[in-house]
Amino acid sequence: MHLIGADLTVIIPGRVEAELTLGEQHQQQRGFAHGGLIATMADLVAGFAGVTLIPDDYGLVTSDLKISYLHPGVGQKLKAIGWVLKAGRRLQFCEAEVWCDDLLIAKASGTMVVIEPQG
């Protein structure tokens, strides 16, 4: 998260938001925010939203992530919002949106796997 320059801005049970100021290092060859960066932001907030609902000694990993890119990421700031649709004992179903300035540029859904502590 910190390697790409993202910061968590909202953390409440089942919901997380993050922001990132776009720089040249985030762009692909046409000057848009790189699709991998957008997917990373979606995965980040969806996963952390899930983490807010499990005990501290448990873990959470992404099993699958489906992302739809709606518009190119051209602007100053990315904002990602993630939430848990359904939290189960073993699986969590999450969604995320990624905004560039005031435009929704991507929508994602993912399945997260709850990892119980060893021992």
UniProtKB/TrEMBL annotation:
Pfam families: 4HBT. InterPro entries: ACOT13, HotDog_dom_sf, PAAI_dom, Thioestr_dom. Keywords: Hydrolase. The keyword Phosphoprotein does not apply. Residues 31-102 form the Thioesterase domain. It comes from the Bacteria. The keyword Hydrolase applies. NCBIfam families: unchar_dom_1. Belongs to the thioesterase PaaI family. This is PaaI family thioesterase. The lineage of its organism: Bacteria, Pseudomonadati, Bacteroidota, Cytophagia, Cytophagales.
